[in-house]
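Troubleshooting: if your tokenizer reports a length mismatch, compare your output against this known-good record of 179 residues.
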Amino acid sequence: MFKRLIFLILLWPGAALANDWDALDTPGAFAIMRHALAPGTGDPATLTIGDCSTQRNLDQRGRDQATRIGAAFRDRGHSFDVVLTSQWCRCRDTASLLALAPVQDVPAFNSFFQDVSTRDSQTQEALTLLANRADRPFIITHQVNIRALTGQTTRSGEVLVVRYAGDRLEVLGSILIDP
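Known-good structure output:
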């Protein structure tokens, strides 16, 4: 029974990953994060980029979570050159609250949850943007985008440590700060 449990833990996506801060020391490593806690699922059909009243947004727990995540990275001495973010308000707010680097909107990181037809083109655009970067980005995006880029799902506020691997991002570790 014990061997079977170990086997299942090793096969379960993300199960063997913990707070892998050391993974950030890997050459070419950077961070990609699912936005902090924002209650609900998806967005209203009336979503308008730039109008937060039409979107699902961070609640107080999400704002607090984003602030704690940023502090944890700063406390450990991890720095980034730029925070690349989806244009959705919950991602932009997460990026600002992290306070890790200047924030830049990148439409390739916008959610395609409600229009999966853009999945492949957005994923390719994101990979092209991340190829051979000279700077070290921290990316804030959505679960569907992270899954398309890495093959792995994430919780709200979970940070994957990744590096560019051509047709995908290779996951080196995971960092999750309790909400």
